[in-house]
Specification:
By secondary structure, this protein is mostly helical. The chain has helices at 3-14, 25-41, 54-64, 68-76, 91-98, 101-110, 124-130, 134-142, 157-164, 167-176, 193-199, 203-211, 226-232, 236-244, 259-266, 269-277, 292-299, 302-310, 325-331, 335-343, 358-365, 368-377, 391-397, 401-419, 421-438, 443-450, 455-462, 470-488, 493-503, 507-510, 519-532. InterPro entries: Ankyrin-DD_containing_protein, Ankyrin_rpt, Ankyrin_rpt-contain_sf, DEATH-like_dom_sf, Death_dom.
Length: 533
């Protein structure tokens, strides 16, 4: 709002006592002074008060766009070239940060405060380093700018240039100003320029600082080396360079996390892979007794989980709460990670600090798909939690009807299985081999239809997994469902399987053809069938 307008409105109000509530002239004067402050402050684009009058604001804007003609015009009118905005930034700051050489020289010719700081402790020299303005930096140095300056966070010239990846600025600093700048100087958090370059993925700067002889293994206040920071933020090229320096890749930070923990927690596949290839300790534990698998399980990182499992990570490590990676994956509903852990033969019966198994957690939260996988894999249904509840009772308490049915059916099957251990072992081999090795795409559907599965049943099974080889998972699930029904009905599963294979014209698998190309299944089926006669 124009100054004249505000002043006019105030004078109108002051001349009309009823508008000011009849206040005294002294109070009127106070209010007038307040109005003048508001007028001088003004409001900028953000709606916050600025400490610039219009001409000063125009002067700052001219410095930002390198408009020296406008700057000279305003200077002739007596503008305060040292005027500061709400964050104590002057026109010199704007010119330096924007790389406006002409505006900078004009200001330096009329202003000797080359080291003036804004509210964040940033002076023109630091801004030039931050934005990579090499020419501006050189001009400021030649004008007597203080080299060992730092902002409120303790960032110096090297820190600013390194974090932003300005290698040419760093070269100038180290080659021309080396006597005045400490290579391993730390900021308020204990970070050197090397730390910041690694943290922000500035590979060229990292290589330059290594070449200049910086210390590779220094730690910040959180006991992070540059290696930790590169791993944490997923900068695999920087991480590779740091590994090559020979630093200890299993070094722990203040919380006991190694670079592998940090890269796993961030889901940085290439970094995890690199560290494993460098022979890091895959089973390293944090202060909370967590290994890398706990972190990937928490976030559901499937590819990283596979990497760790292939590297031999301990699937059954429990943290300070006696929680295993499986507990965590189930709690966060990461189905595929649960599948990977089960395939890796993790212990399904581990109890956490509440004496809950993974199945208890699945039952409590209604995780049907996960519960089904755990039940198929075989789990102890008799284990009790701290409240003396089985997983079945937990599911019932939560009114998870489908889960209750699943657990009851599994319990009945386990009882049958216990009395038919030899047959069950054969059946498991047969169903898995059929689904993954011998039945071609579409044949599992034919087999299902032969056994009376409806189209709706088949569609429901197909919804569980997708992908080019998902028919194998579909077939295996169908076979397990069929097997459960046959067993509960008291029928002969071996005979049913034999007849089903014959019914879909796979006599080679059923053993009725002369061509017995899949000898393992033929032998098992025939032996089991003979045993049942």
């Amino acid at each position: 709002m124009p100054t004249q307008t505000l002043t006019y409105r105030f004078r109108f109000a002051a001349g009309s006592p009823h508008l000011l509530g009849g206040y005294s002239h002294a109070l009127t004067l106070v209010i007038f002074v307040f109005f003048i402050i508001l007028v001088r402050s003004g409001c900028d684009e953000s709606g916050l008060f600025s400490f610039l009058i219009r001409s000063e604001k125009e002067f700052h804007d001219a410095a930002k766009r390198n408009d020296t003609d406008k700057m000279r015009e305003l200077m002739k009118k007596g503008v305060d070239i040292k005027a500061k905005n709400k964050v104590s930034r002057t026109a010199l700051h704007w010119a330096a940060g924007a790389g406006n050489e002409q505006a900078l020289r004009l200001l330096l010719d009329h202003n000797n405060e080359v080291d003036v700081e804004d509210s964040f402790g940033m002076n023109p020299l630091l801004l030039a380093a931050w934005f990579g303005r090499l020419k501006i930096l050189q001009i400021l140095v030649a004008s007597g700018a203080k080299l060992n300056c730092e902002n409120k966070n303790g960032l110096g010239l090297l820190h600013c240039a390194a974090q932003r990846g300005h290698s040419r600025v760093l070269e100038f600093i180290m080659e021309d100003l080396v006597e005045d700048v400490l290579l391993d100087r730390v900021d308020n958090s204990g970070k050197t320029a090397f730390h910041l370059a690694a943290e922000h993925g500035q590979l060229e700067v990292v290589e330059f600082l290594i070449g200049m002889g910086c210390t590779h293994g220094l730690k910040d206040k959180d006991e992070h080396m540059a290696l930790h920071l590169a791993a944490k933020h997923g900068h695999n090229e920087v991480l590779q360079k740091l590994v090559e320096t020979g630093v200890d890749i299993d070094e722990r930070n203040i919380d006991g996390l190694t670079p592998l923990h940090l890269s796993s927690d961030g889901g940085h596949y290439e970094c995890v892979k690199l560290l494993l290839q460098a022979c890091c300790n895959v089973n390293a534990l944090t202060n909370k007794n967590m290994n890398a698998l706990h972190y990937v399980a928490q976030h559901g990182f499937e590819r990283e989980t596979s990497l760790l499992l292939e590297a031999g990570v301990n699937t059954d490590t429990v943290d300070g709460q006696h929680t295993s990676p499986l507990h965590i994956a189930v709690l966060h509903n990461h189905t595929e990670v649960v599948r990977l852990l089960i395939d890796a033969e993790c212990d399904l019966d581990i109890s956490d600090h509440r004496l809950q198994t993974a199945l208890h957690i699945a039952a409590e939260h209604g995780r049907q798909d996960i519960a089904e996988m755990i039940l198929i894999a075989g789990v102890n249904l008799k284990l009790l939690d701290k409240q003396g509840k089985t997983s079945l009772e937990v599911a019932a308490r939560g009114n998870h009807v489908i889960l209750v049915d699943m657990i009851i059916k599994a319990d009945r099957f386990y009882k049958w299985e216990k009395d038919h251990q030899v047959e069950t072992q054969h059946l498991r081999s047969v169903t898995w081999r059929l689904a993954t090795k011998d039945l071609s795409r579409g044949e599992w559907k034919s087999l299902a239809q032969h056994w009376g599965f409806t189209d709706a049943h088949i569609r429901s099974i197909e919804q569980q997994w997708t992908g080019t080889k998902s028919f194998k998972e579909h077939g295996h699930r169908m076979l397990l469902i069929w097997l459960h029904g046959v067993v509960i009905a008291g029928e002969n599963p071996i005979k049913g399987l034999y007849e089903g294979l014959t019914g879909i014209s796979r006599t080679d698998l059923a053993g009725e053809s002369m061509d017995r190309g899949t000898g393992l299944i033929v032998d098992i089926v025939q032996k089991c069938f003979a045993c049942q006669q």
